[in-house]
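Next comes this protein.

***
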Amino acid sequence: MAITKVTYFNPTLANQYYNYLKQHNAISTSNQPIYDSFVNDCSKNTVFWVNLYSSYYESNNISDKKSFWNVYLDCNGKRIQPVKIEEVSKDSPLNAWLYLKPKNYWSSNYIIEFDKSCDSDTIDFNMASIIGSLDFKFR
C-alpha cells in the first residue's frame, strides 16, 4: 500500500505561496535562502513536492538510487527521468508547506526536479513499482 500526495510547483504557484508566507511573517531571516533557492529551482525546472507513505519501509525511499520506485514524467509518450530527487528532512522549514500540518511522521517528503524539456499542455507525473503504479496528471 502507498499513499502519495503530489504538488506541481509551477513558477506561479511557487511565487504566490512564497509571497503568502512572507506576507504572514512565516519565513525567518535565517530560512530565507532555503525558500529563495526553492522558488528559483521552480522557475528553472519542472518541480514536484511529493509526500509518500508506504507500509513497507523498503518502498518508502524514492531518493535512493536502488529505489523500489521508478519516477518519471511521461511527455507525449517519452519518459523523462528526474535530474534530482531530494528527501526533505523532517526539521526542514520547507516542511511547513501546504498539506503538511499537522506533520505526518510516518511519511517522507521529497523534492523531485525534471528539466523543462517537455512541451505539452499536460504534465504526467508517474511512480511505478512491482506493486503498482501511481499516475498524476496536471493541466
About this structure: Strands lie at 2-9, 46-54, 70-75, 78-80, 84-88, 108-114, 123-129, 132-138. The chain is about 20% helix and 35% strand. The longest strand covers residues 46-54.
